[in-house]
Specification:
By secondary structure, the protein is mainly α. The protein is built from 21 helices and no strands. The chain is globular and about 75 Å long.
């Protein structure tokens, strides 16, 4: 038996080694061919090679089980392609970035190569991660919540108490009568946030962001696990918040809410067919541009007017992914490559990775905390924007490139792919629990979706910010059981 197990493990190791080697060779060949590829064919060469690599990886890791469209491997590959190709298409069409920066053909070649190394790095991480023995391990506090009824009865009383105590702060997330558009508040809110002091971030998190994530969890639990009288309450919570997000033009909030619902429905209510997920994804991509057009106002009548105009006029440019402000975050990589080539900045040789982990420390605790990579990028190449409350996003390929160039992209993306896919395997080993499904929904959004435009390390911090409040709730005593036992004793 032991000899048979060793033979299986040896075969598995050889298969993984061959896959990793094939991925590395493909990227190296691409890097050598791209500079001599005709200009008009570069984007097609990149697209074809990208999906050869992606499909090869997905076939390697999904060869024995059905494809899960909500896995980080699928999500990451789709989003990386959309961001990288939209940015390249727009830059190639206009000859400059959306911020007016020109670039050379050599810079665009390096952009394609860096993105391909990112694709390869993710694949290596996905291939090397696997379903391991510790995936069945559950900490004691989490093990107490694997029973769905127990988790529901522990969660809803505590979340309700938190929500009631913080109503004045949470009101803006559900008050549909007083919504300001994104266009009116985006820059001003950031300026006011900075002016209110270093500890404002902690206050905002404790009074709004953390409890809001709990209230969303409550809405989902009431809708799908509550009794008949509780289901409308859950629907109202989610519906009101969705309305506020949509009218306020919050693409991030809408994506998070949709992710939470899709994950819980898919794993705990009814398996969603791949075709349905693809259709939802297509609608989501289309909504990126639609919300961008509508977010200039929070007036529903004006939104309808803008949407009607968008639908009835021949405005293909507005719906073109190459003109999506959201997906064009990847163009910041072009600016970074140009900046390093022109000695406006230099490779950090790993120091930026170390300093980036300081973002885990709140600025209210460490007031002289270094700027994040995203902030440092804006401060370096667009002076004055950061002070005015602006931000341009941070394409996660930039993190590794700024540290070590192409090698940095490969290593950092491989490590990140290994991390998120290992987490996925752990969740899938325990997905029969509502609690684990909620945890997966809270974590997969920052890890696999938000990360593409915010950076890798910052996304890990964001993940903890989402999930820690729920973990604390899981550690608290079950109030219903406590009062029931106390009543029986009396």
């Amino acid at each position: 038996m032991q000899a048979e197990k060793s033979a299986i493990e040896s075969t598995e190791f050889r298969n993984r080694f061959r896959t990793v080697l094939a991925l590395l060779l493909t990227s190296i060949v691409f890097a050598l061919v791209m500079p001599i590829c005709p200009q008009s064919a570069k984007i097609y060469a990149y697209s074809i090679t990208y999906w050869i690599v992606a499909v090869y990886v997905l076939a390697a890791i999904w060869n024995r089980i059905s494809i899960d469209p909500l896995s980080p491997s699928i999500i990451s590959y789709v989003l990386l392609f959309l961001y990288s190709i939209a940015s390249a298409a727009n830059a190639g069409l206009n000859g400059k970035t959306i911020y007016g920066d020109t670039f050379s053909i050599e810079v665009l070649d390096k952009y394609y190569i860096a993105c391909m190394f990112g694709c390869t790095g993710l694949g290596i991480g996905f291939v090397l991660s696997k379903d391991r023995g510790f995936n069945r391990f559950l900490p004691h506090f989490l093990n107490k919540n694997t029973n769905n009824a127990t988790f529901f009865n522990r969660a809803w009383p505590w979340i309700t108490l938190v929500a009631i105590s913080l109503v004045p702060y949470l009101k803006k997330g559900f008050d549909v009568t007083n919504i300001q558009s994104y266009g009116d508040t985006a820059f001003l809110s950031r300026v006011l946030f900075m002016q209110q002091g270093a500890d404002q971030g902690i206050k905002e998190y404790l009074t709004y962001q953390a409890p809001l994530s709990l209230v969303i969890v409550l809405g989902i639990l009431l809708l799908f696990r509550g009794k008949t009288i509780a289901k409308p309450i859950g629907l109202a919570i989610l519906g009101l918040h969705f309305t506020c997000l949509f009218l306020g033009g919050s693409r991030t909030g809408l994506a998070f809410l949709a992710c939470m619902l899709l994950v819980f429905i898919n794993y705990r209510v009814k398996k969603i067919r791949l075709s349905v997920v693809v259709a939802i994804a297509c609608v989501g991509v289309l909504m990126i541009n639609v919300v961008s057009v509508l977010r200039v106002t929070s007036d529903p009548s004006k939104m309808v007017e803008a949407a009607t105009q968008l639908a009835t006029t021949d405005n293909q440019q507005a719906l073109n992914l190459a003109n999506s402000g959201e997906l064009l975050t990847g163009q910041n990589l072009l600016r970074l490559i140009k900046g390093i080539d022109n000695n406006e900045t230099n490779y950090t040789y790993g120091t930026s990775i170390v300093s980036e982990f300081l973002v885990f420390i709140p600025r209210g605790v460490l007031s002289n905390r270094p700027l994040t990579r995203a902030e440092d990028f804006v401060d370096t190449f667009y002076p004055g924007v950061l002070e005015s409350g602006g931000g341009y996003g941070f394409f996660y390929i930039m993190e590794g490139y700024w540290a070590y160039g192409f090698a940095g992209v490969l290593v950092l993306m491989a490590g990140y792919g290994f991390l998120i896919n290992s987490f996925y395997h752990w969740c899938m080993s325990n997905i029969t629990s509502d609690a684990v499904a909620i945890i997966y929904g809270l974590c997969i959004y920052p890890l696999a979706m938000y990360s593409v435009r915010s950076g890798l390390i910052l996304s890990i911090k964001t993940m903890f910010m989402y999930v820690v409040p729920l973990l604390i709730i899981m550690c608290l005593p079950n109030l219903i059981s406590y009062f029931k036992n106390r009543s029986e004793l009396q």
